[in-house]
Amino acid sequence: MKIFKLLKTLSETPGPSGFERRIADQISQIWEPFVDKITTDRVGSVFAVKSGSGTEPRPQLLLAAHMDEIGLMVTEVVNRDAYGFLRVTNVGGVDIRHLYSQPVVVHGRRDIHGVLASLPARMLPSERRNGPFGFEDLVVDPGLPMEILQELVDIGDFISFRQPLRKLMGKNVTGKALDNRASVAAVIICLEELQDRNHEWDIVAAATAQEETRLLGAYTGAFLQEPDAAVAIDVTFAKGAGLSEQGHPELNSGPGLDIGPNVHPGMYKALKSAAEAIEMDVSVGTHTRGSGTDAFGIQVARSGVPTGLVSIPLRYMHTMVETVNTKDVERTGRLLAEFITRLDSAFLTDIVKEMMEEED
Amino acid sequence: MNTLLKQLVETHGPSGFEDQIRDLILSEIEPFADTISVDSMGNLIATKKGQGDGFKIMIAAHMDEIGLMVSHISKEGFLRFTNIGGVSPLILTGNRVQFANGTLGVVYCEGKMFPKEVQPLEKYYIDVGAASKDDCPVQVGDAASFKREFVAQGDRLTSKSMDDRIGCYVAIETLKRLKNTPHDVYFVFSVQEEVGTRGAQAAANGILPDIGIAVDVTATGDLPESRILAVDLGAGPAIKVKDKGMIAHRDLVRAMRSCAEKEEIPYQLEVFEFGSTDARSIQISGPGSAAGCISIPCRYVHSQSETVDAKDVENAVKLLLSLLSGKIDL
Amino acid sequence: MNELLKKLTEASGVSSAEKEVRILIRDLIAEHVDEWHVDAMGNLIALKSGTGAVDLRVMIDAHMDEVGLMVTNVDSSGLLRFDTVGGIDDRTLLGKVVQVGPQKITGVIGARPIHLLKANQRTSVVKCESMRIDIGAKNKTSAMGKVNIGDLANFITEYEELGPTAIGKAFDNRAGCAALIEILRGEPYPFDIIAAFTVQEEVGLRGAQVAAYGIKPDAAFVLESTPAYDLPTDQDISPNVVLGKGPAVYVMDRVTIQDPRLVSHIMRTAEKNEIPFQIRQPGGGSTNTAVIQAVHGGVPAATIAVPGRHAHTPNMMINLEDYTNFVKLTEATLHSVTPQLINRSI
After folding, report:
1. Is B210 on the interface with A (CB under 8 A)?
2. Which of A98, A231, B22, B66 could cysteine-pair with C95, CB 3.0–4.6 Å?
């Protein structure tokens, strides 16, 4: 599968948290040839099952990549004389510092293009002149008369950002929603690779909903699917403009494996072994409380799920110029496939046994 | 409306101590429910069985109200306290509270009678008229609610605890009037919403509904210099699209709007950035549910003079009835 | 779709690096003018001879340049430090896409992710010095193969029409250039028109000054785009100009009192021809009239502008009917200029 084309489709399809239908349909379409069954649940997550070859009852691995992106929502339709404008609020952790002048799509009765705008700082009340433009001052300007806008847009309509995926030097690409469509792409590459390889376990690929707002799909999806183990795939901060400290990976340095309270040590070890087996470079990331990913929610479903976390290095998170290296995306997919093929009937007992074994 | 409502709002029931309000609601709904139970957290759950072929729907209206809990009694018999739920110091000075055993108190701030700046909660105390610590009719751990009477001026109804006794009223009325429904409806009069939607979480984990709908108050944006959201008092119940804790299910919002439009019930759409409801807990329980909320527009939320419009309340009942009486397309 | 506006707004031409726009405009006008040349600063100057009926030399100025960025350094990781060229608010820059240098290398403007800032830093405006243009280069050597210190970068925006309005970059002042091109393509005027597509307006009204000196006009009109501040507000203040009420006539800005005789002529022309117009708020801002008015003992000068929202950002907006009326008003004004209008006899 052509990686740029895949990422472009995934990046450019709208799907802000709570309004994932279009990206859900897109992902289902792409998954279809690679899986046995596709279902959805009450909160909008999509699940696809690919059966393994082991004897029944087979254990099940959940592969979770959230499909939602950050966006905005209409809070009011206002006018200045004949023209209509939209006041908005954020859906998910939008980086408010970069909103001014960003192009958007308003998903009203039909899709409407517009741009985020504000009066110049000197024309704002003095208490708001010095910071970034916030939602009190930003409006979406769709360039339409109020009477037309009113018919097309309601309070509560979703807004996604509008940016085509672009190529930079090397195999770097930049655009919106690579958090977390890059991971969705990695899962697709994994499923594609598994077409030609044997795996004992059942795989449930999950495109989870509303991760950006409250890890909703992680909690509810893991409860619903009751997996025996899970791997969450998300993005992590790569070195770039404004970020050069140790502890963050470079772009094109391969997938990141996370260690921390959300990750079962046995899962981390198994992912690491899989990387070694295919001589793939990986970086190690750490978290001390929450990982800020679906792993946090999956881990505590029902009686608990052994969970791992794989991350794709990404620059400028939560902006419209998120940047990843396509080789990292492909590597992540291949790593997941390798990990999956190595899962056997002893895996679960082994990782529990290890938790009781003395360190050498 | 007003007789029942007066009883509901004036009854004592801060989060965690909802016995009195639960008893009141129980006596009101008993003749109308198919089953009634109280769970281990104190949620009051009344069911109406459906004709089948519908969803399992949980309606949540919280019984609890914000209040104060005694944390210390001074030698002179003055009570220091901590907050139960969101209590701003701005609503304390000179106001009155009531305890479960009927004791009344006056809340005031230490030091200057009229300080220039707002003081934090720690500087406040309750005077129950005790002469000393030993003479005090309440003890550490006792919970107080505010004491303020219900008043009605035309359609404008003002009282403490419209949040969320007005939601309880809507749920009670809906339960009473609901005749035919395809759905199995669980009316949950929940506890401990004000301290983190805790009752609803437990109830939902037990019920595991397909659909969860909270009935609660929301603020209005029609006050001087204060357009915090595009909802006005008297313009109809609000169908919540998003608040701080949850994004409502798109199809449920659509279904509510269709019902309102079909029955010609006025309504507003709500995006509220500053609070949340029981719906957020119901949404994330178990395998998840389609969540939504019908809000009663309310001025001066979390003060002792919460104000709603009777027309909005009646229209909320109509809307909820309409929704529950027919099929819902998800 | 207005192809002229599309072509012009999508072309690159940051102040001091206007070549691409200059060549584009030359290609669009060459057949319609009697002669053209490029002066030492890069201004494109073209003569459209009149019918000879009136003895006047009238200069029409439209600046070709747009605001943008200049690469000031390439650091060891291959990221580009930059500075703004022309007045751009730092708030405009973060998270935008640019193209750098003659090779048009795509780059994005990034900074430290908000999640990794301390709480009190999150509410500060990110300064230009803290941002970098990221072209995806591995390191400095790799980057220097594609871009150089001194390269200019402009925003990338695709022109699109939204109904009554259009979005694009650089309506300031490609809209003015478009109008001037339409005038050059039209019927001859009673007198000679010398069109000056000038450079470096955004960095100090530089090009127009030398163009005017070389042209030695009797009168001059400047075609511009002026900011519309017609977004919703509670304050009762004038918004400079608004979209949809027609082209704007300057009376006074920070550096010029537009020639009152020309100003009233423009307004009378508008009224006579039933072309809607608005009076631009007096006070701030500047146009090339400031430098034209003082050459060779003085030149009467005035500005006509098309209102543009979100000036000096990647996504400006104009009303397409305003643009049409802008062209109409300029044409009608020119057709009725007479020497008597600007005569200063005692």
Report:
1. yes
2. A98
* Contact at CB, C134 and A168, closer than 8 angstroms: yes
- Report pLDDT digits (tens) over B97-147: 999 999 999 999 999 989 899 999 999 999 999 999 999 999 988 999 999
**CA of A68 vs chain C CAs: smallest distance (Å):** 18
Give the model's confidence band at C10: pLDDT under 50 very low, under 70 low, under 90 confident, else very high.
very high
Q: Does domain A3-69+176-354 have CATH number 3.40.630.10?
A: yes
| Same domain? B127 vs B247 | no
Record: fold of A71-161 = Elongation Factor Tu (Ef-tu); domain 3 (2.40.30)
Yes or no, beta carbons of B287 and A210 under 8 Å apart? no
Q: Select which of B18, B65, B173, B193 is catalytic.
A: B193
**Is pLDDT above 80 for C237?**
no
Closest-CA distance of chain A to residue C104, Å: 11
Interface test with A, best of C69, C75, C77, C94 (most A CBs within 10 A): C94
Are C163 and A148 in contact (CB < 8 Å)? yes
Q: Which residues are CB-neighbours of C247 under 8 A, at least 6 positions away?
A: C275, C277, C278, C304, C305, C306, C307, C322, C325, C326, C329, C330
Say yes or no: B137 and B282 in one domain.
no
Predicted local distance difference test score (pLDDT) of residue A360: 61
B30 touches A at CB < 8 Å: no
Q: Which residues of C touch A81 (CB under 8 A)?
A: 230, 242
* pLDDT for A119 beyond 70: yes
Query: pTM for this one?
Result: 0.91
Which domain covers residue B91, as residue numbers? 67-146
Separation in Å, CA of B271 to nearest CA in chain A: 6
Domains delineated in chain C: 3-66+158-342 (3.40.630.10), 77-151 (2.40.30.40)
Q: Give chain A's mean pLDDT.
A: 96
- Give dist(CA B73, CA B79) in Å, integer: 5
- Together in a domain, B110 and B206: no
Whether residue B126 is found in the same domain as residue B31: no
Task: With CB atoms and an 8 Å threshold, state whether B269 touches A91.
Answer: no
pLDDT at A288 over 90: no
ipTM of the complex: 0.89
Chains touching A (at least 3 CB pairs under 8 A) are: B, C
If pLDDT is split at 50, 70 and 90, which confidence band does C281 have?
A: confident
